[in-house]
Amino acid sequence: MKMLKKAMVVATLSLSLFGLNSQTDAATTTHTVKSGETYWKIAQKYGVSVNYLQSINNKSNSALYIGQKLVLPNTPITQADKDLMARLVSAEAKGEPYAGKVAVATVILNRVDSVEFPNTVKGVVYENVSGHYAFTPVQNGAINQAADANSKKAVEEALEFRGKGNGSLYFYNPETSTSRWINSRETTVMIGNHKFAK
């Protein structure tokens, strides 16, 4: 797998994350509900959406009770993570439709949840295999540019619907890609100039 990743990066592909893995793949911890806590308060504390929190606990608008055990991801998404994701989305999906920006953000989250990649946003974005970065904007410095408003919004939407993607772990532009390996991956969706795959 490491050799495949290296070959993919050497081909200078800009690969990002779209479509989340099944929630059972994510590392989890438990939270015991305290007096006065709501799904919203707990979701905010752990940096996840209410929908995501309810989905991994197989609940839909169910009331919480004191002492109830909730399953939560071990790797909460912080404000710094959101900013980093937005900057990557802005650099990777510049000129792409809004749906494509959401898809790129979702790919990042999918990689965080996958056992094949680092389990933090920072680890995923800055992943370096044998001296080669997984994302071109990290390599060329574009990651350091401020994110636009649509990219920030796209990150929030990806977080809100976390777990609703098609399992995508990569994206690329088929017009410019020269990698046979990435072209062999199962396509999940085509948005704008990007093909998403897993």
Word description of this protein:
By secondary structure, the chain is an alpha+beta fold. It has 2 domains: 2-23 and 77-197, Cell wall hydrolase SleB, domain 1 (Arc Repressor Mutant, subunit A, Orthogonal Bundle), CATH 1.10.10; 28-73, LysM domain (Membrane-bound Lytic Murein Transglycosylase D, Chain A), CATH 3.10.350.10. The chain contains 9 helices and 7 strands; from the N terminus they run H-E-H-H-E-H-H-H-E-E-H-H-E-H-E-E. It has a 3-stranded antiparallel sheet with strand order 5-7-6, covered by helices on one side. Strands 1-2 form a two-stranded antiparallel sheet. Helix 4 (79-92) packs across helix 5 (98-113). The longest helix is centred in the middle third of the chain and has 16 residues, at 98-113. The chain is elongated.
Shape: elongated
Largest sheet: 3 strands, antiparallel
- Secondary-structure-based class equals alpha+beta
CATH topology of the largest domain: Arc Repressor Mutant, subunit A
Provide the residue-averaged pLDDT.
79
Terminus-to-terminus distance? 13 Å
